[in-house]
Amino acid sequence: MLALAELNPEQRLAAVHPPCSGPLLIIAGAGSGKTLTLATRLAWLVHQGADPQRLLLLTFSRRAATEMGRRAGRLLHQSLGLSAGSGPPVLPWCGTFHSVAARLLRDEAPRIGLAPGYTVLDRADAQDLLAIARQSLGLAATEKRFPMAPTALAILSRTLNTRVPLAEVLRSQYPWCAEHEAELQRLYAAFGAAKLQQQSLDFDDLLVSWWHLMQKPAMAQRIAARFDHVLVDEVQDINQLQADVLHALAAQGCTLTAVGDDAQSIYAFRGANVRHILDFPQRFDPPARVLALQRNYRSTPQVLAASNAVMEQASERYSKALWTERAGGCKPRLVTVEDEAGQARGVADAVLALRETGLALTRQAVLFRTAHHSMALELELLRRGIPFVKFGGLKFMEAAHVKDVLALLRWADNPHSRLAALRTARLVPGMGPASVKRLLDHSGPLAAFKSPAAAAGPWAELVQLMAHLRSADARWPDDLQRVIAWYRPQAERLHDDARVRLADLEQLARIAAGHASRERFITELTLDPPQSSSDEAGPPQRDEDYLILSTIHSAKGQEWNAVHVLNVVDGCLPADMATGSAAEIEEERRLLYVAMTRAKDELSLWVPQRFHVTQQRAWGDRHLYALRSRFVPPELLLHFDLLDPVVTPAGAPREAGPAAPLFDLAAALRGGWPSGAGSDDAPGTADPGQNPA
Ligand code: ATP
Ligand code: MG
Q1: Is the pLDDT of residue 224 over 50?
Q2: Staple 43 to which of 75, 208, 458, 647, CB 3.0 to 4.6 Å?
């Protein structure tokens, strides 16, 4: 088989590991070909006669799953000489744990007392529902400040995903909420009841429910009987529930192949723990076979050396450092700039310069710790007309108009969803708060509801639309066009920029066409939202060249020829909020490692000496002096080319002075210094005379 010949001996061994000889775990560093090996294994299994319909492929995003299917398809074409037109194998069961759980629950709904049309709540909806419960229990008014809905939801989520008792989670992670344990219990009970009443499940419910089903032998057997082979990528980021589900599937006879890198575990905040992967083999009897891959195919020796060096500073030991046979390139650059604006200009310059040498924008990426870190750069790119696509922000799905349209579709699917009904009803002109409340309490057919006279026309149209959507005549994706048609006049009335918003909705319609049914569309978009309006866009985007902007989390598993990492300073990497426990700091170090190992040929780490912080506190925004990230201590500098361009483009005079105070005096007086303690003589720090640290 041609594709197998291209793998190295270890990779080949893993790809053709006999399915009957027990589970297989491949632990290996970045760029060692784990994903490629998994895709080859998938192709090999199909080649050996496995039914693609009975393969379960679990990845960390839908995008990753599609990519894997494509890779496997290519391999099959090569090996079987299939005609290019026959397309990749159809893999109906691939996606994230949550999306697979959602589908399984939908299928099993009648057997487990669930409405098949149940709604999946995204985080924002779940928070809204929890906030309502918090209010109605009177917890919002308790004397001692009770945790807000987002915190309360995060506590619940952590408790469920780690399977650790609430009291313990409170003690170790949220000590300031510990006194509210009893009220939190009450709140969670009310929240659960509300979800039940509205036949809605949030993300955690999906996973917990799947886990519960797998604990019941008959049910576990039914579910496992759907699959022959289970393949998992990025297994380092699974949590306890997911690990248990995999274990149960394997116990029921599915063959299991999992690949991951313990040094890239970056989801502890969702309950993932490196231990799950390290302890994984021992959970099986006989233990899972563990294979390692040590050769890196992605990066130049210089990029690899710098990345390995960052990881060698970690307090926990990881799978061995990697080696590469790639020919030499240049050292990664560590670029010190004055501030974020300088960083934005510098990155834009560098990107354009590389493009001049023939490297397309799509082969270059800019990575950052948090979505808002790219703001200054986005402005600069817009100013210079450099097209870009941003991943990792959820702006598209959070936009009011997108949420409105989805609410209409959700309400059509699930008449019990008060959240969807509420959002929809508020769109009808002439429906005041009292009428909306009356509608929520209304039972019986929608047509029987007496709308206020002012709302008559649009309301009648809405009733008609809902009747159609709930009837057997509903057709996908035509339904969405009908919803948009009803929504159009509302958007024009509600928003000044309706034209832009309606264009977004056309984008949504294009995405809709790629989904089999209304239910699948809503569920999959909720679970794994397209992360930019042009993500998943159809052909019009394809031949365009654009720069990739991405959070590090969303860059997992990907690679680019040139990579820029923004804000490699303490407070950003590690993030401010992570300066608590040693474990959190270690996770931030792994994040930097993930970012650096995305680069094939060129890597630049940017260190702005001053950055701007938006704060919620009274004194507003401010500038802080930044210290180079503690993950690049002086002894690591030999791995980098140190640049200090402080370029001032012609025509743009340097600002005379800072617009805001250079440091936060009020905080300093209270002892509140910016986090991190770099050494004064390290390049990249500000003038020690002025530096508050
Ligand atoms: P990550 O940990 O970042 O997810 P990975 O271990 O999954 O990385 P891949 O993405 O599968 O690594 O591979 C990295 C790069 O190396 C890809 O461009 C892939 O095509 C290439 N590669 C992997 N194995 C080989 C090989 N045997 N021969 C040539 N190229 C290879
Ligand atoms: Mg990978």
Answers
A1: yes
A2: 75
Query: Over the stretch 666-681, which tens digit does the pLDDT of each residue have?
Result: 443 454 434 432 333 3
- Residue 593: which residues within 8 A CB-CB, separation 6 or more? 30, 263, 264, 307, 310, 311
DSSP reduced 3-state for 337: strand
Q: How far is the CA of 294 from the centre of ligand 1 (A)?
A: 11
pLDDT of residue 13: 93
Neighbours of ion ligand 2 (CB under 5 A): 34-35, 557
The whole model's pTM is what? Answer: 0.78
Which residue is closest in CA terms to ligand 1's atom 26?
Answer: 7
Q: Residue 166 and residue 585: Cα distance in Å, rounded? A: 24
User: What's the CA-to-centroid distance between 36 and ligand 1, angstroms?
Assistant: 6
Q: What is the CA radius of gyration of the chain?
A: 27
522 Cα–ligand 2 center, Å: 28
Say which residues have a Cβ less than 8 Å from residue 33's Cβ, sequence separation at least 6.
Answer: 7, 8, 11, 293, 295, 297
As to burial, measured by CB atoms within 10 angstroms (0-12 exposed, 13-18 middle, 19+ buried), residue 18 is exposed
Task: Tell me if 561 CB under 6 Å of ligand 1.
Answer: no
pLDDT in tens, 326-336: 888 899 999 99
Q: Measured in angstroms, how far is the CA atom of residue 693 from the centroid of ligand 2? A: 39
The verdict on the CB of residue 673 being under 6 Å from ligand 1 is: no
- Taking the CA atoms of residue 596, residue 602, residue 607 and residue 611 in that order, the dihedral angle to the nearest 10 degrees is -90
Q: Compute φ and ψ for 305, nearest 5 degrees.
A: -60, -45
